[in-house]
Amino acid sequence: MNRFITLVFFMLLISCSDSNVMQPFDQSQKPAEVNVKGYSKPDVLQLRLNGAPVSINGNTSYTNKIETKLEFVLDEGETDRLGIYNTETGLEIAHYNLTYDNINDYKTLNFFNLPGIFLQASAVKPQVNLGKVGFEFIFPNLGEYSGTSLTGVKGVLKRENGAILAEFDPIGKKDFTPVKIYSFFSSTAPVYLELYKPGTDIPYNGSEMIRVKIKQDMGANLIVLQEKMVNGVFTVVGEIDVADYL
């Protein structure tokens, strides 16, 4: 009798094992989580996941600080589309294709939507003591007009008389540089950022000095550098200060 019971149990075990082998799950799945930390001013935005508006605190359109956590399930081989839209014009500003394989790259999604630029980066206003000036830089469209393959440049911040205030090496495309602080000296005198290939004194594009006029404000300055073509001439500007929006 014991042998019979043992034999039946053994046969059931084999049967279950064969069943699992012959009938696997149709698709693998994994939970997905995207922490959105954005900012938009003055535009009103809407997030859409696979075309469906995302509600944040009961609202499907939002401005200023935009923060939410998206939680959903991704099937292997599936692509979910997260889009950011201007609600007034209906135009898509940016989108992200979320997949089973890349979802870990989007655990946190940072962005700033400001006049004339969409910046995918995190920014925290640094503490700068009274009477001091702090600068951070980012260069998101490096190479758009220059054609350079560089991922960063060296920046040397100078007074009009050529005195060096701070050096930033490298200034990259994805993250702000660490803050550099110096003593405030004028509310009217500009400062200039000279741009070179990393670790050199060679202009990063062409042979002429690339010199960007920067307005300095007491306290923190988080400057977005941008390549532009003005009347057919290549130039770099630093007109956007993210600190004004924080």
Automatic annotation (TrEMBL):
Tell me which UniProt keywords the record has, alphabetically: Signal
As given in the record, the signal peptide range reads 1-21
Give the highest taxon in the source lineage. Bacteria
Quote the protein name from its UniProt record.
Uncharacterized protein
Q: Which organism is it from?
A: Chryseobacterium oranimense
* Higher taxonomy: Bacteria, Pseudomonadati, Bacteroidota, Flavobacteriia, Flavobacteriales
